[in-house]
């Protein structure tokens, strides 16, 4: 039987069809985004604080905390939770940045489940209307 690593090597990875969403996803994945925390780090922004005023505008804040995207996040959480429960995962769901951006790093998930989580993440990014 192939190991998970061997199974993923040489496979085509899923990316959004929408070019803007694809660019934003890759930038989030590489931690090289247009979020204020990164722009502040390279000297382009004068502050790291998010427009919501409630935290540092980084990947974690954008995906998991920003109140400007609370309704989108609720949709995302429901989708991910349904994927988790549909496949009878007994382990506790850890809703996190790695799960949303790189679900393949979790050995509990199948390729199909990973792709479904990525599609949900892509929808969240696109619906946020942010160029990241």
* Rounded radius of gyration (Å): 16 Å
Which structural class matches the secondary elements? mainly alpha
Q: Which whole number gives the mean pLDDT?
A: 87
Give a quick account of the main beta sheet: strands, pairing sense, barrel closure.
none
Would you identify the regions where 5 or more consecutive residues have pLDDT less than 50?
1-8
Total strands: the figure is: 0
Question: What is the 3D shape?
Answer: globular
Secondary-structure element string? HHHHHHH
Number of domains: 1
Description:
With 132 residues, this protein is an all-alpha fold. The protein has one domain. It has helices spanning 4-8, 19-29, 36-41, 59-65, 70-86, 97-101, 111-128. Helix 2 crosses helix 7 and helix 5 (70-86) packs antiparallel against helix 7 (111-128).
Task: Summarize this structure briefly.
It is built from 7 helices and no strands.
Itemize the secondary structure elements and their pairings:
Elements (H helix, E strand, L loop, with lengths): L3 H5 L10 H11 L6 H6 L17 H7 L4 H17 L10 H5 L9 H18 L4
Features:
mainly alpha, 132 residues, globular
């Amino acid at each position: 039987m192939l190991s998970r690593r061997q199974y993923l090597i040489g496979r085509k990875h899923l990316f959004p069809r929408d070019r803007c969403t694809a660019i934003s996803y890759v930038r989030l994945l590489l931690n090289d985004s247009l979020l204020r925390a990164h722009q502040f780090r390279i000297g382009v922004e004068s502050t790291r604080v998010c427009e919501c005023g409630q935290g540092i505008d980084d990947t974690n804040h954008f995906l998991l905390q920003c109140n400007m995207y609370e309704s989108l996040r609720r949709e995302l959480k429901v989708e991910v939770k349904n994927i988790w429960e549909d496949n009878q995962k007994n382990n506790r769901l850890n809703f996190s940045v790695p799960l949303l951006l790189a679900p393949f790093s979790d050995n509990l998930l199948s390729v199909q489940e990973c792709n479904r989580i990525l599609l949900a993440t892509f929808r969240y990014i696109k619906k946020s209307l942010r160029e990241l």
